[in-house]
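User: Can you recover a sequence for this backbone? Please restate the input before giving your answer.

Assistant: Of course. Working from this structure:
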């Protein structure tokens, strides 16, 4: 029975892939990896078991993105709100994140870029993440943003703070800055500066809210909400998200 289900699943995957319009696929995909703890609770397991299961599903996702021709993936691994969790859960979660990012780096298949308020992270975590990212800087492959200690409001506040500091160094009068600042000036100070905005944002676990993910960048993004908890997110779920995206008419606010 299991082998029959596997054959049917693979056939369905091939069918979905065959009917995807390569001209209408996203260039940048953002993924909110949600539901690890609830997945663990369903199994009477520790939260860390859910986080490890979620970490194990990251590399397959990146492989699916590669196959689909995606150029940039942003993974939300840890929010600024998560940093307020009890230390008994936060510390193991940080170790898991360090390990999975290090594994991705060692695979040397993707160029990693860490985004978030890194100054809010413990020194060990910050150093580990930066080391992993630096080790992939020479790669000309799919770019993967790993959003850790990330919050959309925090990012915008940091961007404005950076903009003000830059103009303070130049000696720009505050009233002049207030008159001349433009949207693109703030965008130049975001964690993702220079990158294209996400075309498609996927959130797992059935939650249908933004939660602060890429608040600035996702103004014109298409959203896809999946019922599966992140550790159970399969290739077929990803392909369905791509199909839904390809079938939509993007209006860009019009």
């Amino acid at each position: 029975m299991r082998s029959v289900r596997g054959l049917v699943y693979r056939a369905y995957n091939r069918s979905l892939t065959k009917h995807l319009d390569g001209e209408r696929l996203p260039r940048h995909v953002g993924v909110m990896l949600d539901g690890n703890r609830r997945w663990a609770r369903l199994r009477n397991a520790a939260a860390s078991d859910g986080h490890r299961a979620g970490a194990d599903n990251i590399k397959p996702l990146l492989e699916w993105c590669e196959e689909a021709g995606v150029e940039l993936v942003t993974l939300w691994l840890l929010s600024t709100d998560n940093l307020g969790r009890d230390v008994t859960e936060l510390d193991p979660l940080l170790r898991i994140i360090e390990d999975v990012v290090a594994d991705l780096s060692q695979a040397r298949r993707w160029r990693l870029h860490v985004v978030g308020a890194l100054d809010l992270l413990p020194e060990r975590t910050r150093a580990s993440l930066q080391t992993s990212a630096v080790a992939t800087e020479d790669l000309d492959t799919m770019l993967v943003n790993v959003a850790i200690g990330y919050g959309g409001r925090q990012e915008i506040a940091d961007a404005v703070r950076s903009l003000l500091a830059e103009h303070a160094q130049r000696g720009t009068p505050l009233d002049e800055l207030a008159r001349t600042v433009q949207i693109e000036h703030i965008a130049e100070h975001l964690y993702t500066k220079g990158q294209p905005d996400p075309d498609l944002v996927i959130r797992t676990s059935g939650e249908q809210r933004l939660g602060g993910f890429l608040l600035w960048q996702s103004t014109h993004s298409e959203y896809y909400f999946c019922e599966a908890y992140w550790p159970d997110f399969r290739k077929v779920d990803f392909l369905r998200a791509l199909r839904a995206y390809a079938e939509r008419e993007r209006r860009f606010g019009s």
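That completes the design. The longest strand covers residues 72-79.
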